[in-house]
Amino acid sequence: MADKIVILTGAGLSAESGLGTFRDEGGLWAQHKIEDVATPEGFQRNPDLVHAFYNARRKQAAEATPNAAHVALANLQEQHKGEVVIVTQNVDGLHEAAGGRAIHMHGVLDGALCAACGHRWPAPAEMATGQICPACSAPTARPDIVWFGEIPYHMEQIADHLQDCDLFVSIGTSGQVYPAAGFVQESRMFGASTLEINLERTDTSGVFDRHIVGPATQTVPAWVSEILG
């Protein structure tokens, strides 16, 4: 039995809750270039556009509900005799809404961040250019999201978990965005077994010991049942 399990979750986990991935046609991401809405430079060029984009994402996420995969992972955290650590690339709150706990390496949609002093506070439903920071009064509020070119949050904590886990599981992530795409190699280096659960094979599939292919709402609950016996 794996005493300590580290699980990395990506956009594919929340897709069945109606939250789109980068590659979905017709979704929010399809209407914008990444460099315009998900980089510090894009925010400097056109903060109105960036706020409008994340206001739409925030509204979409607030209306979403956890699916069977989120619920299964929350149950695993609750019932597994060992430790279960979830690290998520997702900025929605669906792990928590299902009763689970997650380390949010890319930030959260319902958070605001001051670009001047680093203060964080709960984001309103709609943010706007020039919004005032409640700590330093600077008009520099931005979404508390890690954009491309920025360093993900909690990396030291995540590295510690990767180094002492028995099983590393990647669920619903494309394996294209670093540093998360390198977590499988890091955990393997320290002796962990590795499992990929995804709708299809990915760029990093060849590195994993085992693969389960199919929709997250079917594959994740089945795998959790297997672990819990």
Automatic annotation (TrEMBL):
Its EC number is 2.3.1.286. Substrate binds at residues 54, 57. Residues 1-229 form the Deacetylase sirtuin-type domain. PROSITE patterns: SIRTUIN (PS50305). Its main location: cytoplasm. The keyword Ion transport does not apply. NAD(+) binds at residues 10-29, 89-92, 172-174, 198-200, 216. Gene3D superfamilies: SIR2/SIRT2 'Small Domain (3.30.1600.10), TPP-binding domain (3.40.50.1220). It holds the Pfam family SIR2. It catalyses: N(6)-succinyl-L-lysyl-[protein] + NAD(+) + H2O = 2''-O-succinyl-ADP-D-ribose + nicotinamide + L-lysyl-[protein]; N(6)-acetyl-L-lysyl-[protein] + NAD(+) + H2O = 2''-O-acetyl-ADP-D-ribose + nicotinamide + L-lysyl-[protein]. The active site is at 106 (proton acceptor). It is found in: Cytoplasm. Keywords: Cytoplasm, Metal-binding, NAD, Transferase, Zinc. The keyword Transmembrane helix does not apply. Binds 1 zinc ion per subunit. Zn(2+) binds at residues 114, 117, 133, 136. NAD-dependent lysine deacetylase and desuccinylase that specifically removes acetyl and succinyl groups on target proteins. Modulates the activities of several proteins which are inactive in their acylated form. Belongs to the sirtuin family. Class III subfamily. 2 residues (Tyr-54 and Arg-57) present in a large hydrophobic pocket are probably involved in substrate specificity. They are important for desuccinylation activity, but dispensable for deacetylation activity. PANTHER family: NAD-DEPENDENT PROTEIN DEACYLASE (PTHR11085:SF4), NAD-DEPENDENT PROTEIN DEACYLASE SIRTUIN-5, MITOCHONDRIAL-RELATED (PTHR11085). This is NAD-dependent protein deacylase. It comes from Thalassococcus lentus.
